[in-house]
Amino acid sequence: MAQQVILNNTTLNVSNFKEETINQNGQDQHKLSFDFQVTHEEYHDITTLLYEQHFDIRVPENNLDFRGSICNYWTSFTNLYNTGAVGDFHLELIETVKES
């Protein structure tokens, strides 16, 4: 199971990693889901990253490298503006299909 996912050169230490291949419109696409924690200190950088919505995605342990985007996400109801706070994030990414 992957322990790290890299989005646009930002490494996330993840848990509950799941990798699957789905078929949409006759094309196979990678789909990843995982959880990670974000601290008060990381909050701004991580949310700024996630606002980009499209990423170069690498999972070295699984030999994955593809372009993808967010298809689902959620966070815990934690006020990360409070010093010492830690929030739980869940992220689902799907590979971007190249137009033919």
Automatic annotation (TrEMBL):
Which InterPro entries would you find in this protein's record? DUF3219, YkvR-like_sf
Domain of life from the UniProt record: Bacteria
Q: Name one Pfam family in it.
A: DUF3219
Quote the SUPFAM superfamilies the UniProt record gives. YkvR-like
Q: What is the recorded name of this protein?
A: DUF3219 domain-containing protein
What broad taxonomic lineage does this protein's source fall under? Bacteria, Bacillati, Bacillota, Bacilli, Bacillales
